[in-house]
Automatic annotation (TrEMBL):
Coiled-coil ranges (or none): none
GO biological process, one term: DNA replication
Protein name: Chaperone protein DnaJ
Assembly and binders: Homodimer.
Annotated GO MF terms: ATP binding; heat shock protein binding; unfolded protein binding; zinc ion binding
Sequence ranges of the CXXCXGXG motif repeats: 147-154, 165-172, 187-194, 201-208
UniProt gene name: dnaJ
Length: 378
């Protein structure tokens, strides 16, 4: 039996890592091993699938708790559960399938192991500008698609070679007594498909699906946030034998920007001012995330840390025409590499200013408090 790698080791985290640490490590590794960044590298592709499988479990609190307690046996067949109870008696689906089989019909779900093809996950990286306006991206995924030779039937004779399973009469599930319970399991004859194939297709060996690389267009909406997961129904792995395909989940990673920082619907931009501009006041022109420009009036005496709010110039709001605000954060730069004349002018200014609180109120006030502090201690 193949050795199963610990999911925490796969994501390079500890068992005490927070949800945010798990997400951060997943994003880093997913970007490192993404097929688009490692074309033709089978090892990177396998690692990418392993990373997504581990993240799918550890990001979910309930799945993570089950994994911490029971390990891989919580999700796979053949493992012993708590107290030595064998989960494989419930059709080999693990802890998650126990609840699916016992309560699935109550929740309106179809019983059986093959209710749909497997879901798959991938990641797409976009710029902050693309997140603001929305963008259509093509993603490449390695997945299972319907076999072209048998048109997904799994039969060498096409539909004519597919028959209704005689054991479950096409239901894909059978009932069995388990102590006081009557439990539904996938039919052992057709493995939940509800159909059997007498002459398997030579291309897919009766599976009805083959592995292929697909390019899928993903519409990323305006206002999307970093870490958002987009679900594309029916774009996952094909199920084969008439089973509907699974879903594709695309995790969106928004790249950092050289000018803007985003906080929800608000945008922050750090703008440096020369000392004279801050002291005398000025008008500056700043960029906006939508590609336009706007002017901001800086009043005389502006200090480092001052904020100026531009209403409606911020980020787009998901599924809305509204926009947040933009905040200009000012920092006052100290001049460097002064000429002789510049030094003379600054020295004249410093001499004339002296201890006048009107020129440097924070400086004067601070040192007065320092003096009072030392006098108090004495």
């Amino acid at each position: 039996m193949a050795t199963q790698v610990d999911y925490y080791e796969v994501l390079e985290i500890s068992r005490t890592s927070s949800a945010e640490e798990i997400k951060k490590s997943y994003r880093r590794l997913a970007m490192q091993y993404h097929p688009d960044r490692n074309p033709g590298d089978a090892a990177a592709e396998a690692k990418f699938k392993e990373i997504n499988q581990a993240y799918d479990v550890l990001k979910d609190e309930q799945k993570r708790a089950a994994y911490d307690r029971f390990g891989h046996s919580a999700f796979e067949g053949g493992g012993g559960g708590p107290g030595g109870f064998d989960f494989s008696g419930f059709g080999g689906g693990g802890l998650g399938d126990i609840f699916e089989q016992m309560f699935g019909d109550m929740m309106g779900r179809r019983g059986g192991q093959a209710r749909s093809g497997n879901d798959i996950q991938t990641q797409v990286e976009i710029t902050l500008e693309e997140a603001f306006s929305g963008v259509k991206k093509d993603v490449r995924v390695i997945t299972r698609v319907a076999c072209e030779s048998c048109h997904g039937t799994g039969s060498g004779d096409g539909e004519a070679g597919v028959q209704t399973c005689p054991s479950c009469h096409g239901a894909g599930k059978v009932r069995a007594q388990q102590g006081f319970f009557i439990v539904e399991r996938p039919c052992p004859t057709c493995h939940g498909a509800g159909k059997i194939v007498k002459d398997p297709c030579k291309t897919c060996h009766g599976e009805g699906t083959v592995e292929r690389e697909r390019t899928i267009a993903v519409q990323v909406p305006a206002g999307v946030e970093d870490g958002t997961r987009i679900r594309l129904t029916g774009e996952g792995e094909a199920g084969g034998n008439g089973v509907p395909p699974g879903d594709l989940y695309v995790h969106v990673a928004v790249a950092e920007h050289s000018l803007f920082q985003r906080d929800g619907a608000n945008i922050y931009c750090r703008v440096p001012l020369r000392m004279a501009q801050a002291a005398l006041g000025t008008e500056i022109e700043v960029p906006v995330i939508d590609g336009s420009r706007t002017k901001v009036k800086i009043p005389p005496g502006t200090q480092t840390g001052a904020h100026f709010r531009l209403r409606g110039k911020g980020f787009s709001v998901l599924r809305s025409s509204a926009r947040g605000d933009m905040y200009i954060q000012v920092t006052v730069e100290t001049p460097q590499n002064l000429t002789k004349r510049q030094r003379e002018l600054l020295e004249e200014f410093e001499t004339e200013a002296g201890e006048d609180v009107k020129h440097s109120p924070e400086h004067t006030g601070f040192f007065r408090r320092v003096r009072d502090f030392f006098e108090g201690t004495e």
